[in-house]
Write a structure and sequence with these properties.
The structure holds two protein chains of two kinds. Chain A is an all-alpha fold. Chain A contains nine helices and no strands. Chain A has helices at residues 4-25, 58-93, 97-109, 114-125, 129-156, 159-166, 171-208, 219-228, 235-262. In chain A, helix 1 (4-25) crosses helix 2 (58-93), helix 1 (4-25) crosses helix 9 and helix 7 packs parallel to helix 8. The radius of gyration of chain A is 22 Å and the shape is elongated. Chain A starts with a helix and ends in an 8-residue tail after the last helix. Chain B has two domains: 2-76, no CATH class; 96-278, MetI-like fold (Orthogonal Bundle). Chain B is built from twelve helices and no strands. In chain B, helix 10 (225-262) packs parallel to helix 11 (268-278). The chains are: A mainly alpha, B mainly alpha. At the A-B interface, helix 3, helix 4, helix 7, helix 8 and helix 9 of A face helix 1, helix 6, helix 7, helix 8 and helix 10 of B.
Amino acid sequence: MRRVPLIFGLVAVGFVVVAALLALVWTPYDPAVIDPVHRLGGPGWPHVLGTDTFGRDIASRLMAGSRTCLLVGIVAVAFASAFGIPLGMLAGMTHGVVSRVVLRATDLLYAFPAILVAMLLAAAFGGSSLTGTLAIGIATVPVFTRVARAGTLSVMSQDYIWAARGSGISWASIAVRHVWPNIAPLIGVQASVSFGMAILAEASLSYLGLATPPTTPTWGRMLYDAQAQLFNAPLLTLWPAAAIVVAVMGFNVLGDALRDLLDPRLREVS
Amino acid sequence: MAITRQILGRLTTLVASLLVASAGIFVALNALPGDATAAILGTNADPAAISQLRAHLGLDRPLWVRYLSWLHGLVTGNLGTSLLSGDPVASLIWPRFGVTLSLVTLGMVLSVVVAMPLGMYAAVHRRRARGFIAATLSQLGMAVPAFVAGIVLVLVFAVYLRWLPAGGYTDLQRDPLEWFRHLILPSVSLALVNGSLLARYVRAAFVEVLTEDWFRTARAIGWRLWPALWRHGVRNAATSLITVLGLQLATVFVGAVVIEQVFAMPGLGSLLLDEVGKRDLVVVQAVVMLMVALVLIVNALVDVGYLALDPRLRGRREMR
């Protein structure tokens, strides 16, 4: 029973990652090629999951979509960690003005969810994959700041930090040698959960047409196209929807399972 | 009085946050020179016409002067005029504000209705399979984006069963029943996702309540489980849950933007999306500022409301 979430998370995430890696070199069909004769075909052979309004192969488009959303997730989470973690450690290691300013800025950023930032950037620069990814990254920064700060605070109250300070070790090397290794596992858990959220945000953005250009196959865009055919071909919405749910849930569940694995005491509470 | 000082401190933070947020929004949209003119004249316009338009719109003034005049307008209730249509921005926003407000309010209320029983059930039965299933359900709900839930709900209740409309909106004043019928599917799709997330916090809060000494005492003097939870547990769990609700408001607002798109509702979200497409910066910055300001103000009110609700917080330096 305890292991079910971990296994589910690993399988779901593994499935998406393998599909994305495979899509780098091979998809059953070209995801962009149009075949009007076989439009709106049901699941079967040779189109395993059927075809869409333009006769494009759905399985291939789903695979290409997994490639896009993983790429967006990786870049966005990397961006958020690059800014969020140092800020959080700074807030956790300092007192007074610096830490308060970082905290207030973090609180303020929470009022700007990814879609809002994406709209701002799209209005200013025109919507593109770059602005979409950047928006998700910016909106994820405060999450990492908060986790890094909480972890840093608990590390800083340990006796060995006193000892390190007493033997004249600088703040910078305390941060790198003592704080970082101790908060890294927490950050890893958060990265997994944030990855799930990033995929969700990417799907919403591409559904709204705010991120990737319409020609790029993404799960959100596929849903948008499928919605127009809701009355003719209801099955069409099912595939991208299922892909989003499996991917997001996979990363969420994996993050939770990793947290339990790292800290059994948390099992009861969270 | 310590409490007055705390409230004043929180309100100062609110004003500072509003100022920083407005500056951030303004700079993001206005730092690029000439973008507003490109939206009106296109990118291949005559340079003379561009500079004339820039002077007309006041874009030849320095950035900070334009920011201050925008800020002055915000405070005095003048949101400016649309770059493209020339309509006052306020006249574009207000008719749509009611739509979004109805959707967000109903969505929030429904998410609490979904989350409280689900989270409490998962907490009470946390060591059994039933609790595990309840927790898994909320995990599943979290992974379904609101717009996917919306599309599936349309498929079931509008396409197959034909019980409810697939989209659109009717004003409350015109026909309350139709208003409600149009809001059911959109707000349920918002609440499913948001409620699932909230349920996790509800579960965590009640697991804490269940392990408290005073709760054991309440049980020991003869309170039954559920009455004890309702009578003593809810009030104690509520403090942390209200904060979460306040923080979720931002997410729900944005969720409403997407949901309005799914159900073709004429709210703030669809206005924002249209204007982003047309790159009408004046309207975009007004709508985004309005949404962010609402979120910040509600969160500040939540914090202040706490001081009234929970005497234990009074006198603490850091709230939250």
